[in-house]
Amino acid sequence: MGTIVSAYETVIGLEVHVELATRSKMFCDSPTTFGAEPNTQTCPVCLGEPGSLPVPNKRAIDYLMLIGLALDCRIAPHSLFHRKNYFYPDMPKNYQISQYDLPLCVEGHLDVDVDGVERRIGITRAHMEEDTGKSLHVGTTGRIAEAKYSLIDYNRA
User: Fold this and answer.
1) Which terminus of the chain, N or C, has less C-beta within 10 A?
2) Does residue 137 fall inside a structural domain?
3) Is 25 helix (H, G, I), strand (E, B) or coil?
4) How far apart are CA 91 and CA 95, in angstroms?
């Protein structure tokens, strides 16, 4: 190996999204029934209407702590939700509530067997953030570039 190549270590990161099996969304009482008619499981909170205030789903926080314990994470004594501001058509509020900067679960690991050798995979964080809506691009391929028009379902937002 050349000196430049040997001076660096290859690190591969993965971002894994998990949908928690809760009866309501992360920050409101709207249901999470899969397959419901588009835009029938929304409320002022998940649509970001003025004056509406989010309330964290305790069951989702409990699930996150269980995930953190399963990954041998350190459970932080406190966490913080903040707004990640950006505009996408499938994000009705133009921000996403997230724990990214101060997550509840940090510094964990997952031990896996690779050809008889145990390998430890480091886990930087496990955190919660709300989901976006679902975009459907109607056209020849279903891709946005060829779409005749787009539809948005805010049921999961």
Assistant:
1) N
2) no
3) coil
4) 7
Q: Which of 98, 92, 93 is nearest to 153 (CA)?
A: 92
Looking from the CA of 4 toward its CB, the CA atoms found within 13 Å total 0
Which residue is listed with tokens 């000196």? 3
Q: Does 18 reside within a domain?
A: yes
In the chain, at which residue ranges do the beta strands (DSSP E only) sit?
Answer: 74-75, 82-85, 95-98, 105-114, 117-126, 134-139, 147-153
Q: Domain limits at 114?
A: 3-131
140: DSSP letter? S
129: DSSP letter: B
Instruction: Report, in this order, helix, strand and coil percent for the chain, each rounded to 5.
Output: 15, 30, 55
CA dist 115 and 109 (Å) reads 19
Q: How many domains does the chain have?
A: 1
Q: What is the pTM of this model?
A: 0.81
pLDDT beneath 50: ranges in the chain: none
In a domain, 116, yes or no: yes
d(CA 88, CA 86): 7
Amino acid 144: pLDDT? 80
Q: What is the pLDDT of residues 43-59, one digit of tens each?
A: 999 898 999 999 999 99
Tens of pLDDT, residues 114-139 = 999 999 999 999 999 988 888 888 88
